[in-house]
Amino acid sequence: MEAVTPLRRERIDRLRGLYAIADGAATRPSLDLIAAFLRGGARVIQLRLKSAGTAELLRVAREAAARCRAHGALFLVNDRPDIARLAAADGVHLGQEDLPVEAARAVLGADALIGVSTHSDPEMDAALAAGADYLGFGPIFATASKPGAPLPPPQGIEGLARAVKRAAPVPVVAIGGLGADNAAAVAAAGARCLAAIGELCRAADPEAAARRLGLAFGGGGKLG
Amino acid sequence: MEAVTPLRRERIDRLRGLYAIADGAATRPSLDLIAAFLRGGARVIQLRLKSAGTAELLRVAREAAARCRAHGALFLVNDRPDIARLAAADGVHLGQEDLPVEAARAVLGADALIGVSTHSDPEMDAALAAGADYLGFGPIFATASKPGAPLPPPQGIEGLARAVKRAAPVPVVAIGGLGADNAAAVAAAGARCLAAIGELCRAADPEAAARRLGLAFGGGGKLG
Fold first, then answer.
1. pLDDT digits over A94-111, tens only?
2. By C-alpha distance, which of B92, B91, B155 is closest to B123?
3. Of B56, B57, B78, B82, which to mutate for an interface test with A (greatest number of A Cβ within 10 Å)?
4. Which of A140, A193, B30, B37 could form a disulfide with A19 if both were Cys (CB 3.0 to 4.6 A apart)?
5. First vs last Cα of chain B: how many Å apart?
6. Total-model pTM
7. Interface of A with B in 35-94 (CB under 8 A)
8. Structural domain boundaries, residue B131
9. Which of B30, B117, B145, B212 is catalytic?
10. Cβ-contact B176, B154 below 8 angstroms
11. Mean pLDDT computed over B171-182
12. A50 catalytic, yes or no?
């Protein structure tokens, strides 16, 4: 495996705290959501616009990247290394049906942060072997964010703690059914980030929801 | 505008004859369609898999690229420069809602062939100014290939002939409602390629349909 560059190392180190996913399926425009998440203290923003045209995705990604930079937050694009590169994002997040890590890295280069969604030990091991810079892991609790999609069973806080140990020193981003009520347990289990979609995108006040989640989670990363 | 590299020039020169679009919405697997189109003599293959996961798209694109290479046909990927690059395709085809030409070129480099769908003089002029290597132009006749999508009015053979002159020396790929009955007129109007989707993807025998269309079109490119 190739060496981690200083810029990529810095990006990995900055992966902490609230990881807010702006979903194009939300009723609010993605850029409005991202602005609210950043004001609310999110440290990582992921843009997921599955149904937009590519030109629109690039437009939104470029603007989102600029806003994240201004807040010192990391900016990741879901699924599309070409858009991540063109928008000068910090990296991409890949689902299990997205590109393999090495393909995304071939497009993005050695400085990019590449994360992979995982839901089981075999998926974690494969992503680690492929050189993922962080692992998404979940769902921790039951969730309704992806209606229709077949989701693996919830992992619980114990499953998260096991995943954090399995992945170490690669950081784990916990996702799925997370809120202010369970954020402290997620932090205690060693997750470096708490990720949320529906809890933030469907909130009446996304800025307040981000602030509440980020404060409840604290710094995160006890073990990461 | 940057200079056209020798490899890109060669790719532009090879853009002739039947341009077959394998659409993921077809009932047959895309690779089966592509194999049939190539056996039937298609000189250009475009892969359009809008609803596939990205990993699946890359898998199909890599295999399609190998088959096209073996037949000496050009291989283009719809919309996704990252996939085109990873599959070592000859280039990409961009719709009006896809990436701008310069963005696609930033991902693909100077050797890639980049085409743009156009439906009017302003769209043609914009694509030419952006440095498109060829223009898709249509619909020439009414078509049902994109049910639900709002399509511009058919341009007719006269509209095509005007477009060919406007674009020259940039080649024009005619599309929309084309079949063996009007292919000779399309060639006479100066289109370098005749492109087809539904006529080929929905054919009972895609290989025979490709052969019939390619023969009816002839070499193409009287003016191109």
1. 999 999 999 999 999 999
2. B155
3. B82
4. A193
5. 21
6. 0.91
7. 53-56, 58, 79-82, 85-86
8. 6-217
9. B117
10. yes
11. 96
12. no
